Amino acid sequence: MTLAMSWDEWARQDGMALAARVRSGELTAAELARQAAEAIAKVDPALSGVVEVFADAVEDPAKAGANLAGPFAGLPFLMKDLGPTMAGRLQEQGSLFMRGNRPAADTHLTAKMRKAGLNLMGRTTTPEFGVCSSAENPAVYVTRNPWNTDYTTCGSSAGSAAMVAAGVVPIAHATDGGGSIRIPAGVNGNIGLKVSRGVFSIAPHLSDLSGLVSIQGCQSRSVRDTAAFVDHCRGGAPGEFMPYWTTPEPYVELIKRDPGKLRIALSHQWGDYRATPHIASELARVGKFLEGLGHHVGYALPDVDYRAAFAAQTTCYISNFAIVINNLLASRKLERPPAELIEPINIRIWEAGRDTSFAERAAMQAVFNTTSRAFGAFFEDWDIILTPITALPTPKIGTTEYLTISDNPDVLDWFENLWRNFAFTPLANLCGVPAISLPLATNEHGLPLGIQAIGKQADDGLLLQLAAQIERAIEGKWNGGTTPAVHVTKA
Questions:
Q1: Which end of the chain is more exposed for a tag (fewer CB within 10 A), N or C?
Q2: For position 491, what pLDDT does the model report?
Q3: Residue 71 predicted with pLDDT over 80
Q4: Would you say residue 446 has pLDDT above 80?
Q5: How far apart are CA 472 and CA 256, in angstroms?
Q6: Is 202 in a helix, a strand, or coil?
Q7: What residues pair up with 387 in beta bridges, in sequence order?
Q8: Which of 402, 411, 404 lies closest to 318, judged by CA?
């Protein structure tokens, strides 16, 4: 197949640059789609990050639903196989149990993506129901890190992270219930923003606070692609449980200006969970870099009962996922999860959470409230909290203690394993505040390590401004200007 451009040229441009070339008539959306499909064919055998490519969306993006007059002008876009549904397309959620599941309608956010001009041309991998830290079940697929395929991509936005990092597409869909945008962005060298609560709608799915710990979004390689995605896909559907807010100025304009001098608090220990010395030193190094940009940097953290906060977060996950599984069982008139089709930890989560009482949920929500208030009070004195994305190095493929195929009989102990590594991301979900992972560091194994900036509610724009300031300061060379071992530009 004759491609529209070289692989170096393809990987060098962000999504907005490619869209501009379509609008100018230099390229067509179909040419971009064919190049993205060839990119998948080139790298995915080594990574296993794509579940399906939609041939009709490659052949004719407009006929498949992309609004070519939208700001993204038919840009190829991969959808995580979880969350927003696409009319008539399979959505199997990383589960043998969901094989053949074909939703009949687009969700609200899917329609917003299409209107923005994104060409939804395929599905990417995710762990079963998005529950664990890696898309790694040999009976379904094993998604590998493009920097070193002996290591995981983490998750749950596993395939999207791998495809963006490997240069397949400049931007892809992701979701985040406790770090599932930011963690894989961090270990794959991408930009990953979890927006504030009240930005992206999940209509017609759960609209109360039990559903809104989970946030929609994207992973990208440029700040302006992420800013444009938020600008054009945000907003609530009619009848939302809570208000959806907007900004007086589009983020793509806001990020052209540096923020003022910021008060940035570094933290590498939250309660019982502490980063390794190497990772803590990487955080300190980035702090020095930010001081060089004119910001005030010190060590501080919110006055939170972290043990209670993580216990409440665990209750939230167990009870939420138990209801998800219960609803799936009810739709098929089953009394319990079939062991041959649903992974062991997810069955144990269902067993532990199916009888959660209202009193237990009320106690959980009370801790959510006090934790959120404590973060709010902290942000009266500080603008941003800066942490590593993970406390420990990226796990190798086959590290089952983090996976839902684990044989751990104790669900609470299984979650405790997760918190030891991924403690720095989930409380932003609990509080509904924005957080972004930026590819600014490396871990002990030389793999990417994201540095996370957390802001107060509705300060998403400030995080993007800081990210754009950093991007300009490093001349756009995230990850030190290096690319993964598995990449479209490499043999």
A1: C
A2: 86
A3: yes
A4: yes
A5: 10
A6: coil
A7: 452
A8: 411
Q: Which two tokens stand for residue 224?
A: 């302006």
Q: At what angle do helices 29-47 and 158-165 cross, to 10 degrees?
A: 110
**Helix or strand run (H / E) with residue 297:** strand 296-299
Alpha helices in 60-107 (DSSP H): none
Closest among 374, 378, 328 to 354, alpha carbons compared: 328
Q: Which tokens hold the place of 98? A: 């969901």
Q: Residue 388: in which H helix or E strand, if any?
A: strand 384-388
Distance CA 88, CA 54 (A): 11
Can you tell me the distance from the alpha carbon of 124 to that of 51, in angstroms, rounded to the nearest whole number? 5
What is the dihedral sign for C-alpha 251, 253, 256, 262?
negative
Q: Which two tokens stand for residue 182?
A: 């930011």
- Across the beta sheet with 191-194, what order do the strands follow? 50-53, 118-124, 75-80, 171-176, 215-220, 191-194, 435-442, 448-454, 384-388, 263-266, 296-299
**What is the C-alpha separation between 9 and 170, in angstroms, rounded?**
12
H or E, element range at 220: strand 215-220
Q: How far apart are CA 117 and CA 171, in angstroms?
A: 13
- Write the pLDDT tens digit of every residue in 125-173: 999 999 988 999 999 999 999 999 999 999 999 999 999 999 999 999 9
pLDDT tens per residue, range 112-129: 999 999 999 999 999 999
DSSP 196: P
